[in-house]
Every structure is written in structure tokens, then in C-alpha cells.
Amino acid sequence: MSNKEKRFGGAIPVLVTPYTEDHDVDPPVIEELSARLARYDCDGLFVAGSTGDMPFLSIDERVDLLRAARKGLPDSVVLYGGIGDFALKDHYVNARRFAEVGVDAAVVMAPIIFFVINQSELYEYFRAIADNSPIPIVLYHHMRVTTPIEPETVLRLADHPNIIGMKETGATVDRTYKMLELLGKRDDFFILQGREAFLEESYRAGTGGCVAALAGPAPEPFVGMDHCWRDGDEEGFKKNLEMVNRLCGLFDIMPADSFSYFTYTLKKMFEYRGWMDNSRVRTEGFNPPAEYDALLKEKLEELNFPKE
Fold first, then answer.
1. Domain boundaries, the chain
2. What is the biggest distance separating any 2 CA atoms in the chain, rounded to whole angstroms?
3. Which is more confident, 308 or 180?
4. Residue 250 pLDDT > 90, yes or no?
5. Which of 15, 99, 128, 158 has CB 3.0 to 4.6 Å from 134, enough for a Cys bridge?
């Protein structure tokens, strides 16, 4: 199936990266999780993003994970892979390697550096990557990156034939509104909401779907919400959205002293559900207290989170 025949957008879970006892990546688990999520009718899957520990993964490890994910997915499900790196030209190599293992779209953030660059520089940065990538590019804005991709820059980049969309994980929903206003009704570029808390406003404003970390261990309400929205089922949309909002309450219990709590919590959800057999993170010095595990289990039970 060609990219032109695939549906970009929709409900896209973000996968965590599983690890072995030696803290090496575990591609067979990624393959199994990918196949499982495809059975829940997700439109795509995002592997090796920030939720998947992108900064901690070598490119060889990412390639192994993406190869495994592609093996587990039907051809109709779009595979997104994070090609972020430090050197600009390394992005070109990464995109080619990802294409070779069946990745459909390369996801690219602004340079992960501590100093700010201007929007003209940022435009040329993304343009160069798109010019040299054999697969389409999806931009990725995150509120914690030093240089934001301003809405006006997104509009300019949307005119590039190899830049097809954007994952928007902003601090407010106002950026989403502004980008949709600037883009108008064009159907060759999509905005995907990356903040679960902003999904209702984003869908009603006209986004093309969502890329959600919580959709990994809990695909049902995200897929259901997206499908109901497309079908014009307002009651079903609200019912699924209510569950999404309840799941978002898990963010409130995570301690703020380590990002590992975020990925660990997601892995505990996978483990609780019976889809993974451990919740190891890459950073071996991370040791959450037993009290946190007990609290998380209590919250999952309150949510009637599925156990299989």
C-alpha cells in the first residue's frame, strides 16, 4: 500500500520503549505491542519519540525498534518514527535508514539545544531535512523545547511538498487555534494534538487527530473518540472523551523530580493490563518507592482499568 492510500492522522498511540533485564531495547515486545494496538483499530503508531526515550536511544536501537514495529503492524497502519539528532546531516541519514525498515513518516523536533535560534533559521533547518528525506516529514513542537515552531513558520513549512503535518504539544490550546486559522481549509497538511487535556477543543477546532501517550496502554477511548467524531456521533464522542479526561488524572500523581516517572507510569499501565511483563526504564538509577506503585494501582482500580 502506498503512502497516498494510507490515512495520516486519526488516533495514534505513542509507544514506550521496553527494556530487557540488561536495560537493552527489546524489539520483540515492540512487535507484539504494535500488533496488539493494530487490533484496536488505531490509525498509526509513533515509535521512538520523547515518550519512547528518544534522547536515550542510539539510531541503531531506534532502527531495530521501528523494524520490529513495522513487522507487527498491518501495512495500512501508518508508522511514525522520531529521527531527531544533533547534527543536521545526520537527520538525512536517519530518514533514509528509517525508510528502509518501513517507516511511513519521520517526526522532527526543533534542535534540542539550550540556546534559541530565530524562526528563519528554524525554517531552513526543517526545509533542509525535508529536502533530503525519502519519506514525508511531520513537525513536532513541544512546549519544553527551547525554540518554538511559531504558527507563522508552520504555515510557511506547510507549503513544502514533503512536510505533511505537525504534532502539537503546546502549553496552551491557543497555538492550535492560531495554526488552524492560518492554515485554513487546506487538506494537504494536518495538525495532530499531543496534549490529552486539549483534545475536545482541538477536535472541535478542526485538527486531524491526536498523538497520545496514554493511548498506548489505553487505546479504546482514544480510538473510540476519534471514530465517533468522524461519524458525527456526539454522544459517543463525549462518552469516550470523559474516559480520556479521567485517565489524564494520572498525570497529577506523578512526582516532578524525574521524567522517568512518566514513562514508568505508562509501563506500569501496560504491565497492569498484562501487555508487558516489566516496567524497566533506561536510567538505572531510577527507583520509585513502593508507595508510588501502591497509589498508581489504587488509581487504576478506581478507573476500572482493564486487566487481561
1. 3-233
2. 51
3. 180
4. yes
5. 99
Which amino acid type is present at position 25? V
Q: Return d(Cα 279, Cα 44) in angstroms, integer.
A: 24
Could you tell me the strand order of the sheet in which 190-193 lies? 10-13, 209-212, 190-193, 163-169, 137-142, 105-109, 78-82, 44-47
CATH 3.30.43.10 for the 3-233 domain, yes or no: no
Pairing between strand 78-82 and 10-13?
A: unpaired
d(CA 116, CA 122): 10
pLDDT in tens, 109-136: 999 778 899 999 999 999 999 999 999 9
**Is-contact 91 85, C-beta < 8 A?**
yes
Query: How confident is the model at residue 308, as a pLDDT?
Result: 86
Q: Which amino acid is at 139?
A: L
Question: 245: Cβ–Cβ under 8 A, 6 or more apart, which residues?
Answer: 196, 197
Q: Which residue has the cell 529536502?
A: 131
Helix, strand, coil tally for the chain in percent (to 5): 45, 15, 40
pLDDT tens per residue across span 183-229: 998 889 999 999 999 999 999 999 999 999 999 999 999 999 999 99
β-sheet bridge partners, residue 11: 210
